[in-house]
Amino acid sequence: MNTAEAQATHSHLGAPEAQSLEMLRVQDLHAFYGESHILHGVNFDVKRGELVTLLGRNGAGRSTTLKSIMNMVGRRSGSIVINGNETLRMKPHHIPRLGIGYCPEERGIFASLDVHENLLLPPTVRSDGMSLDEIYAMFPNLYERRKSPGTRLSGGEQQMLAMARILRTGARLLLLDEITEGLAPVIVQKLGEVLEQLKARGMTIVLVEQNFRFAAPLADRHFVMEHGQIVEEISAAELPSRREHLNSMLGV
Amino acid sequence: MMMIFGVPMAVLMGQLTLGLVNGAFYALLSLGLAVIFGLLKIVNFAHGAQYMLGAFAALLGFRYLGINYWLALILVPLVVGCFGMLMERFLLRRIAHLDHLYGLLLTFGLALIFEGTLVNIFGVSGARYSAPEALQGGMNLGFMFLPVYRGWVLVAALAMCFFTWFMIERTRLGAYLRAGTENSQLMQAFGVNVPLLITLTYGFGVGLAAFAGVLAAPLYPVSPTMGSSLLIVVFAVVVIGGMGSILGAIITGLSMGIIEGLTKVYYPEAANTVIFLVMILVLLLRPAGLFGKEA
C-alpha cells in the first residue's frame, strides 16, 4: 500500500460511516445575487467516488449551484456539508482547503502568468495531489507550451490547463463547470478520457454539462435543474428508459 | 571645455544626474501606486503623505531615538508599511465593496489629515536631515562632479525597483499578486486568503513610499507638504506609463526624470510643465499609457 492509499484509508477509519460515504450534501440551498433570488431550495448529495451531472437549460441555476458551494455568490442560506463539515459560514478561501477543486465556466486562465505559473498557482490543499510529471504526462501539450502566457493557448489547451491545475492541489472533490463548451470533438473526447482516469483514481466529480452525449456514459447519476431547483434525479441504470423524457426537459 | 548643443558637458551631465535622481523617486512612487492600484483598484491619494511620513519618521527617529540613517532605511519602511496595513484593514476594507472613487476620496482625506496634523506641530518651513558622513561630499568623475549622496540614491532606488520587480514577476507570492490583480474571486476559490494578500500589498506599496521618503530626507527639506507637490507629478508619470506594467512604471519614471533634467538645460521655463505636456500627448495618442494594456 502506498502512502496516499494509507492516508485515504486512515481518514476513512477516522470518520463515522455515514460521512465516509458522503462527499457532498446540499440541503435547501437558496442563493442570491443582490436582490435577485437564483436558487430556490436545491437538494442533492454526492457519494465518495461518484460522478454526477447537473443538467438543465441555461439559467436553471447549475453554475450558481457550483459557485454557491464555493461561497462565490452574494448571500446563501440552507446547508452545504462537505466531507462532514458544514461550510455555510466558512470564509471563501477556507472552502477549497477541504479538498475541493473548482473549474469555472470561463476557465479563469491568468494572462499575466505563463502556463507553468498557472499550473503552480493554486495552493495544495492535500499532500496526495498529482505530481507535475503525472500532469504533464496526462496533458503533453501543456508541457510543450509551459513558457507561453496562459491566454495564448487554444481553447482546448486552456481547458486542459484549468483542469490540470486543480489536479495538482490534491483536491478530491472536483466541481467542473461546462468544461466541453465550445471545444472540438477530439478535445471533448480527450476530456472524457481524463474524467475516466480521475474516476478510477477515486475522485468525486460534479459536472455541469450542456453536452449530454458527453456526460451520459461517464455519470453515475444525473440531476436535472429547473428554475433554481433540482426537479429530477436519474440514475445511470434508469437513463435508457428515461432518455426521451430527459431530452424534452432539456429542450434538445 | 566640451560643449553639447551649446551647453557645457559638465552642466548637461549635472542636470542629467539631477533628472535621474528625480526620476528614481518618480519610479519608486509610481511603482507603489501601480502595485496598489493593480490589486485594490484604488488610486492611493495618500501616497505622497506616506512618502512624507517616511521622511518625517527618519527625522524624528534620529532626533528623539538616535536612530541613524542606515537603520532608518530599514526600519522606517517597515513601520510606515505596518501603519499602511492598519489603514487598509480598518478603513479601506470597510469601503472595498463600494465604487473605487470612495477609496480615492478616503485616501485623499487621510492625506490631508496627516499633512494638517504635522503642519500644526512642525509648521511648513521644513527641517534639515543630514546624510551619513560616508555619503557626504562628492566625486570628480572627470567629465562631471557627482555628489555621493545623489549617486547613492540612484543606486538604492534602482536596487529597490529591481527587488520589487523580482518579487512580483519571479516569485510565488508575486504570482498570487498578479493573478489576484486579474481575478481575485477565483484566487479565493483556490484557497488563497485574498483579504490578507490585499493588506500585505497595500503595506508593501506604502513601505515603498516610505523608503523613498527616507532616501529623500537628506536631499530636500523635510516638511509636511513635501509629498503633495511631488505626488501630482507622480500621477502624471503613472498616466504616461499606464497602470499595467511594473517595468513600465520604472522605465517611465526614470525617463520622465531625464526629460525634465534636459528641459532644465535647454529651456528652463518649461521644466516644471514638460511632464504634463508629455502626459497630454500620451493621453491623446495612446490613452492607456505607454506600457498600459488597451482595455
Structural commentary:
The complex is a heterodimer of chains A (252) and B (295). Chain A has 252 residues and is of the alpha/beta class. Chain A has one domain (49-72, 96-250): Rossmann fold (3-Layer(aba) Sandwich). Helices cover 35% and strands 27% of the residues of chain A. Chain A has helices at residues 3-14, 17-21, 62-69, 115-120, 132-138, 140-144, 155-167, 185-200, 212-215, 239-250; strands spanning 22-33, 36-47, 51-56, 75-82, 85-86, 100-103, 173-177, 204-208, 221-226, 229-235. In chain A, a hairpin with a 2-residue loop joins strand 4 (75-82) and strand 5 (85-86). The N and C termini of chain A lie far apart (47 Å). Residues 1-19 of chain A have low confidence and may be disordered. Chain B is mainly alpha-helical. Chain B has a single domain (3-122, 132-285), classed as Orthogonal Bundle (ABC transporter involved in vitamin B12 uptake, BtuC). Chain B has a two-stranded antiparallel sheet. Chain B has a two-stranded antiparallel ribbon with strand order 3-4. In chain B, a hairpin with a 2-residue loop joins strand 1 and strand 2 (7-8). In chain B, helix 1 runs antiparallel to helix 8 and helix 2 (47-65) runs parallel beside helix 4. The mean pLDDT of chain B is 91. The A-B interface holds A 70-72, 92-97, 102, 104, 108, 110-113, 117, 120-123, 125, 166, 169 and B 172, 175-176, 178-179, 181-183, 185-186, 188-194.
